[in-house]
Amino acid sequence: MALTGIQILKMLPKKNCGECEIPTCLAFAMKVAAGQAEIGECPYVSDEVKEQIGEASAPPIRTIKLGTGEDTFTMGGETCLYRHEKRFENFTGLGVLVTTEMADSDVEGRIERFNSLRYERVGVEMKADVIAVKDAKGDEGTFVALTQKVLDGAKDAKLVLISDNASNLTAAAKACGDRKPLLFGATLDNAADMASAAKDCGCALGVQGSNLDNAVEISEKLIGEGLKDLAIDTGARTMRAALEDNIVARKAAVTKKFKPLGFPTVTFPCEMTDDPLMEAMISSMLIAKYAGIVILSDLQGDILFPLFLERLNIFTDPQRPMVVEEDVYSVNGPGEDSPVIITCNFSLTYFIVSGEIEGSKVPSWLLIKDTEGLSVLTAWAAGKFGADLIAQFMKKSAIEDKVKHRELIIPGYLASMKGELEEELPGWTITIGPREAGHLPAFLKEWKPAA
Ligand code: SF4
Question: Structure pTM?
Answer without folding.
Answer: 0.79
